[in-house]
Amino acid sequence: RRASSLLKQQRANVQSTCPLSKMFAWLDDVIVGHAFCPWATSSIAKGLLHCVVCPATTPAEAEVFIRAEARRLHEAGVEPFSNTLVILPHVKHWQKFTHFEDWVAWQQHGLVDDVAASELMPEDHAVLAKCHLVAFHPKFAR
Per-residue pLDDT for 41 more than 70? Predict the structure, then answer.
């Protein structure tokens, strides 16, 4: 439960209306609380979870942002098993779960949006191959 208490401390430092506050509550209650992610608890307890609200408003902008974060995770000096939780509250197209699910399927097959492709760096594909994208959506229900 050490990870849970760390999340509660982080939550206390964020305004309740902020996307980060909602994310901390969800992370603690769902992901850590139900052990859905095998490395989340350890990552949180070791202080290796980085949370960021992405300013992207389109799927292509989000893709570029996520790939830049993947590059950051592979820079020298970044601890092994470091994780980033990217919150994407401004991508209106993804408010409909099926649109988000389609984008995730593209990512899992190594496909890239044409707009995003023009902004990606050559090493992005190799770096992402070393990362594991775990996608969550608030309207997911199966």
Answer: yes
